[in-house]
UniProtKB/TrEMBL annotation:
Protein name: ROK family protein
Any Pfam family the entry gives: ROK
SUPFAM superfamilies the record matches: Actin-like ATPase domain (SSF53067)
Family (UniProt): Belongs to the ROK (NagC/XylR) family.
PANTHER family (alphabetical): N-ACETYLMANNOSAMINE KINASE, ROK (REPRESSOR, ORF, KINASE) FAMILY
Amino acid sequence: MPSPARASGDDGGAAGPGALGAVEVLPGRVRAALLSGAGVVRERADAVFDPAAGAGAVDAALAEVAGLLAAGAPLGVGVAAAGVVDPGAGLVVEVNEAPALRGYPVARRLEALVGAPVRVEHRARVQVLGDRWFGPGRGRRSFASVSTGEVLGVGILYAGEVLAPPGGRSGAHMTVSASGRRCTCGRRGCWKTVATTRWLRERARALGLGGDVTLGALVAAPGEEAARLVGEYAENLVLGLATVQQLFACGLFVLHGEAREGGERFRALVEERLRADVLGGGEPVRVVVSEAAVDDVALLGAAGLVLSGR
């Protein structure tokens, strides 16, 4: 079996006593890391599998990265998984793009390989725990953590608990336009149809701004056309965020992913439009952009899942 891709943190040290194990399970890929109790990633491992294969392919990928985790003797392992999950049973219920993960007992498999307790949660929801323990949400009992870019989703901490009802999803498929475009789920007008990188590129192409642009490039581009598109993108993102705020009064929204490319200008646009769209009362809504590296967001959330369970 080939060795997994493996790297040490910048300081080169092992995680040491009190280490936290973190795993991200994606269609065709498994990422693992050992983190310190302060949320510093010390070592990483990476393995791939055929998402169209059987469960044995996932078993092999987990086995490749489990050595790193077992060697660190972590307090526990948190799993941030794509798709629909059953945290109580420790299962990945279904991932549309990866039949190999359907009904996969990831917690049981990892516990046998690592010898530590394992907890599982949806990757978009669990990232709020990364922000709670290691990021801008420290000290708060209610706030929202938002994935932006190719993937869209919201994790909500409410009164100190992650909102994670059985069968619940990340919000990408909430309807924001009854007569909107057809979504990959088959319904119309889902939030993800107007507030992801795919929409941004398609809209930029239609406006003659190029079909492979980034949010950062559009923010920096001269001319009113690019500025209007950035504003429209911010408004589309707020369509979902305003609903979340109205329902749960989060107060704070931590943006991850593509929003980071937009810098202060995009952050301010989102905050301005969100404040204009929600009813008054409670604390003023704030929007911040996380400084965490994109590749670390889910891993930090998984590590936070371990701490939250102790």
